[in-house]
């Protein structure tokens, strides 16, 4: 029963952490787009050079935003799976947690805690107990 609470905490923490990554991606896209728009309206800069600079800024912002969003989506999906007590959610969050270990300091803490909880024997037994075979087993 105790590990169920830890699983719920892991799911909520991953949901929040991934949502912050998702929001961060949209904010970075908006900021870089705004900077790119401002650059195109700077006086005393030739129009061609301004548009080239703006295109580079927009491109950098778009790449960073897409990377943040792409890495946030599996965390959100896995957290929802964990909240619904699905085995695939546990596996997905384990994969996400190994990548989170690289995001010092908060991702490392979250990844370490998640791995500890999701590899615990009681947690594995809890998820296996709820799992049912896809096809009936013949006697």
Task: Name its key features.
139 residues; mainly alpha; 81% helix; rod-shaped
What does the radius of gyration come to?
21 Å
Number of folding domains?
Answer: 1
- Whole-number mean pLDDT: 90
Major sheet, described briefly?
Answer: none
Strand content: under 5%
What is the helix fraction of residues, given as a range?
Answer: over 70%
Tally of strands:
0
The N- and C-terminal alpha carbons lie at a distance of: 33 Å
Number of helices: 5
Low-confidence residue ranges: none
SSE order, as H and E? HHHHH
The helix/strand class is: mainly alpha
Shape type:
rod-shaped
What does this molecule look like?
With 139 residues, the protein is mostly helical. It has one domain (2-130). Helix content is 81%, strand content 0%. It has five helices and no strands. It has helices at residues 2-40, 47-83, 87-100, 106-118, 121-130. The radius of gyration is 21 Å and the shape is rod-shaped. It starts with a helix and ends in a 9-residue tail after the last helix.
